Known about the structure:
By secondary structure, the protein is an alpha/beta fold. The chain has one domain (3-281): Alpha/Beta hydrolase fold, catalytic domain (Rossmann fold), CATH 3.40.50. Helices cover 37% and strands 19% of the residues. The chain is built from 11 helices and 10 strands. The protein has helices at 3-6, 45-55, 83-97, 109-120, 154-160, 162-166, 176-192, 195-203, 235-238, 259-262, 264-281; strands spanning 11-15, 18-26, 33-37, 62-66, 102-107, 125-131, 151-152, 173-174, 221-226, 247-252. The protein has an 8-stranded mixed β-sheet with strand order 1-2-4-3-5-6-9-10, sandwiched between helices. Strands 7-8 form a two-stranded parallel sheet. β9 (221-226), α9 (235-238) and β10 (247-252) form a beta-alpha-beta unit. It is globular and about 50 Å long.
Amino acid sequence: xxxxxxxxxxxxxxxxxxxxxxxxxxxxxxxxxxxxxxxxxxxxxxxxxxxxxxxxxxxxxxxxxxxxxxxxxxxxxxxxxxxxxxxxxxxxxxxxxxxxxxxxxxxxxxxxxxxxxxxxxxxxxxxxxxxxxxxxxxxxxxxxxxxxxxxxxxxxxxxxxxxxxxxxxxxxxxxxxxxxxxxxxxxxxxxxxxxxxxxxxxxxxxxxxxxxxxxxxxxxxxxxxxxxxxxxxxxxxxxxxxxxxxxxxxxxxxxxxxxxxxxxxxxxxxxxxxxxxxxxxxxx
Length: 284
């Protein structure tokens, strides 16, 4: 990371009455910009390493990794108590940080918010990428498969024990590398989340904002899901696909809710192809 990039770490802006923490990488303001939104209740670290690997060698892009309210280093004031409030803060933060068009990238809950951004301003959001997105708000209403572990590395069993691996309700591929990345990219956000704030948000979980544009979204889109994802699944996403006529829809075997960790090579290749399509339109 260059000195110029390092300056952008641990930066805050005020948006809708909230001090929003974000990490900025790549080119400066005025460049093609990707806004990346993490899931719930983790933080920007679940996005940072995975997507920086995608952008490696692709010059000219500005990347903004936001911490959502109550998660990471973004504190949630007492009045923030719903997904609608989170969405309002995210939109306000983007308005401060991005002067014009951008592409939205959302993982899980962040995918739910990213769909809302594209629906609210389809001509401003010039590309949309959804990673294991939350399509149906309430988990009880989702169509998800049962949990399965497809790969369990003997060396990892020896290191951490069967009990720890059995307690992992998300992992489909349990190897030394996926375990290392989970501890580095997922667990820190879970550990630092504001439990009171996230509980308030969870009480008003479904947003009242539009999730699909009033007419088909004509910019390059990507929906990337895991066949063994027990959190958000893959079947529900098919229901909304016709709203995105330029979307690639991929369901990866050997992948759960942390698809980017369990299938990194395919993840990176497919997201790079989406970026190629975005750049091809020359609209950001």
